[in-house]
Specification:
By secondary structure, the protein is of the alpha+beta class. It is built from 1 helix and 4 strands. The protein has a single domain, classed as Pantoate--beta-alanine Ligase, Chain: A,domain 2. The N and C termini lie far apart (about 110 Å).
């Protein structure tokens, strides 16, 4: 009786390494592309938030007594919330924060000087 031994069929180490290299050539650029898209959206949100803060800060500087605590604005179909808080004692400190979808994007704190003689 002769026992015939069949060779085990499988992949060689070289074939596996080539497959890993080819897969990484395809997958790595895709990962970087998606990451850059996410960073672009984050940067766009920060620029929008800073523009909203700048507008609101200017309104507070011009009309410090008429500051509303919360405002909502819709920009490009997305809702933004602008929150203003002011300390009651002089020098008044104003904190303006901007949120999108409940997540705070940016915050600025500054001092507000009011002219009490002119009523502004």
């Amino acid at each position: 009786m002769t026992a015939s031994i069949k060779p085990i069929q499988g992949f060689t180490l070289l074939e596996i390494l080539i497959a890993i290299v080819l897969l990484s050539v395809v997958v790595v650029p895709l990962i970087f592309t998606f990451r850059q898209d996410k960073m672009f959206v984050h940067d766009r949100d920060r620029v929008t938030a800073m523009c909203l803060i700048d507008q609101e800060a200017e309104m507070v500087r011009v009309f410090p007594r008429y500051m509303s605590p919360v405002k909502r604005k819709t920009i490009a179909g997305q809702e933004w919330e602008i929150c203003c808080e002011k300390t009651p004692t002089p020098p008044e400190e104003c904190r303006i924060s901007v949120k999108k979808n409940g997540r705070e994007i940016s915050t600025v704190t500054f001092l507000v000087y009011c002219d009490t003689t002119s009523g502004k």
